[in-house]
Amino acid sequence: MMGSWKFLSGVINTAAFPVLCIDYLDKLFPVFESGWPRKLALLISTMLLSFLNYTGLAIVGYVAVLLGIVSLSPFIIMSILAIPKIHPHRWLSLGQKGVKKDWTLFFNTLFWNLNFWDNVSTLAGEVENPQKTFPMALFIAVIFTCVAYLIPLFAVTGAVLVDQSEWETGFHATAAQMIAGKWLKVWIEVGAVLSAIGLFEAQLSSSSYQLLGMADLGILPKFFGLRAKWFNTPWVGILLSTAITLGVSYMNFQDIISSANFLYSLGMLLEFASFLWLRRKLPQLKRPFRVPMKLPGLVIMCLIPSGFLILIIVIATKTVYLVSGLMTVGAIGFYFLMKFCKYKKLFKFNNGEKLDN
């Protein structure tokens, strides 16, 4: 169940990035705001980006680093140029009077921007010495990500005074124009698109390699672990992930990220419960990495994020409950289908862990 929730949250999350790309592009090209041009743009962009993912992790990794540098540069420049215009008292504002605060959107967006860190674990098999590389990489990435969000946010909120209703997807580009001119607005819009491309590639890689790992463990049929001859990438996983991504990419952006958050929260709660149960029942079990804390400390450590996860579940909309519920039911049905296929030997499975475990 955990694997299904994590996979589904991942592929739904992947759908958010083409939508985000088009949301920025339609500010430059209004034809993409709605209708068939927008739908066609979503289809083509998703297919092209999926093909790039098919070409291999090395290419995806280098492209992601390059895109990260290019996409962050205009935000750094905007933050520097905003310094003379900053009024610190604006940071203490509690919001514009008379404007309704959408806390559901706020918490979902905040959660969406700062989660999915554990998805990198599905790529551990492609990394040399992950026990040392991953903790350091995650430590640096968390700090870098928080700083990259906070500095431009403080710069814009301190330097720009506009009606609160104008703060919507892509407002940083509008703020950049107000601070420095149209040239920076265009650069930020291009940078945002490139950033979304990099995030799409990272998320799709994680989802496709998760299916490969589940096939290696015998949870899914062996053909889910097939790799491309030319690029050694899990093409079946990429194909299935892309198909589901396309299926949900025509939802609105808020419903996409809320559904991804909801399923991810369910998976994380189950993951925390499994983590604590294993530490209690099998404390001496050899692990690649062991959290250096005793059980009471681990319980407290897990309770804090669990509270936020429960909040995300509670504030979900009816649409999110419906989408997540249908996908959960589908995942349960798929689980029993795999058990049936394994029992009847309809497909070949690796001799990994059994579904009953």
Explained architecture:
By secondary structure, the protein is an all-alpha fold. It has a single domain (1-93, 100-344), classed as Amino acid/polyamine transporter I, CATH 1.20.1740.10. 69% of the residues lie in helices and 0% in strands. It has helices spanning 2-28, 35-54, 57-82, 103-113, 130-159, 171-179, 182-216, 235-248, 253-281, 295-314, 318-344. The longest helix is centred in the middle third of the chain and has 35 residues, at 182-216. The termini are close together. One of its GO terms (molecular function) is symporter activity.
What is the overall pLDDT average? Answer: 84
Q: Could you tell me the number of beta strands?
A: 0
CATH topology: Amino acid/polyamine transporter I
**Which overall shape is indicated by the principal axes computed on the Cα atoms?**
globular
Low-confidence stretches: 353-357
Helical segment count: 11
CATH superfamily: Amino acid/polyamine transporter I
Largest sheet, strands/sense/barrel: none
Radius of gyration: 22 Å
CATH architecture: Up-down Bundle
How many discrete domains? 1
**DSSP helix fraction:** 55-70%
CATH class value? Mainly Alpha
Membrane topology: Multi-pass membrane protein
GO molecular function, one term: polyamine transmembrane transporter activity
Keywords: Cell membrane, Membrane, Symport, Transmembrane, Transmembrane helix, Transport
Organism: Tripterygium wilfordii
